[in-house]
C-alpha cells in the first residue's frame, strides 16, 4: 500500500498545482461538431486540420482495406506484416513529398512518435551530436536521449546560436532537428537557414512536419515544398493522423538513408506493422489532399486562421503570433487557464488548456486548433464565449 500511497500523493500534488490531465470520451467521429461525454460540443481540440477524419471517401477506403487485407497485419514489416497496401502507400508518399531529394523513398510507421524515435536513433550514436530546438516535440527529445548522442539545445529558432554550437563541435556525426510548425505556438521554423547550416557543416537536418503535412505548400505537400527547399541532407518526417485524417507516420529521405532505417531503426523493426487498412485509407487521403477538394479546404482554413487571429487579438489575453491552424491564447496561471477553459466548455466549446510541462510555467494557454470543418458561425460562437469569459474574469 505504501507504493500506492506514494502515487496518490503525486496525484494530489498535480491537483494542487492545477496540472492533472483528464480524459474526455468522444461518442462520435472526430469533427468540428462532436458528442463528447454525452454532450454536443464544437471541438477546437483536434489536429484534424483539413476535416478529413470522417470524410466519406476515407471511411469507405478504410472498410475496403479491411475487406481486402483483414483487420491486422499479423507481424512486423520484416516478418510477414508488410502488405501491398503499405508498399503502395510508401511509393505514393515518396512521390508526394520527396521533391527535396534526387532519389526519395518513404518508410511507413505506426505512429509519429515511432517515426521520430527512428530518425533520432538510426542516424546517430555515441560519437554523434544532436542539435535540438528548445521547443521540439517530446518524441524528438526522447529520441535524442535514446540515441546516446551528445545533445546540444539551441534557443528556439535561433540560427545564430545554432551556428555557434555547430562551429564549436568536433562530432563525427552532426544532426540538427526541428519541428516545422511548433505545436504549442504555431510558428514555423527558419527552414531555409537550417538547410544552409546543415550543408555548411555536413550535418543531417531532420524536420518533423507533423503539423505542416497536408496543410502547407502546393497541394499540401508540406513545409519543405512551401519553402521550395532541396538538399541531400534532409530527412523528412510526416504525420498521417492529423491533416491526413487517418493514422500513422512516415519518414522520407534519399533511398540509401531509408534502406539504413530498415536495417537499424528499432521502432520500425521490432513492432507489429499497422493494419494494412490504415495504409489503404491514407492512400485515399492523399488523393483528397492533393486534389481540388484539398485546395478548397486549405483556402477555407486560411480564412478561418485570418479571422481567428483577429478575434483573439481583441481579447484581454495574449495571442501568440501564429499564421497556422494552431492558434494559442496565453492566459498565464494554471488556475486562470482552467477557469477560462471551463467557461468556454459551459458554452459548448472544447478548447483545451495547455499547461506545464508542455509549456513553460506562467505561460499556460488555450490552444485553439482550427479545422476546415469549422464554419464561420463556429468562430462567432467562440468569439462570443471569449467575450463572456473575459467579462467574467475582469
Looking at this protein, list some descriptive labels.
Aspartate Aminotransferase, domain 2; alpha/beta; 2 domains; single chain; 4-stranded antiparallel beta sheet; 394 residues; Aspartate Aminotransferase, domain 1; 7-stranded mixed beta sheet
Tell me the layout of helices and strands.
Elements (H helix, E strand, L loop, with lengths): L1 H15 L16 E4 L2 E5 L12 H14 L7 H5 L2 H14 L6 E6 L2 H11 L5 E6 L4 H10 L2 E5 L4 H10 L4 E7 L11 H11 L2 E5 L14 H4 L7 E6 L9 E6 H10 L1 H4 L6 H14 L2 H22 L4 E2 L6 E7 L1 H13 L2 E2 L2 E2 L9 E6 L6 H18 L1
Parallel strand pairs: 2-12, 4-5, 4-6, 6-7, 7-8
Antiparallel strand pairs: 1-2, 3-9, 8-9, 10-11, 11-14, 13-14
Your description of this structure?
This protein is α/β, with parallel strands linked by helices. The protein folds into 2 domains: 24-54 and 291-393, Aspartate Aminotransferase, domain 1; 57-289, Aspartate Aminotransferase, domain 2, CATH 3.40.640. Helices cover 44% and strands 18% of the residues. The chain has 15 helices and 14 strands. The strands form 3 sheets. The chain has a 7-stranded mixed sheet, sandwiched between helices. It is globular. The mean pLDDT is 97.
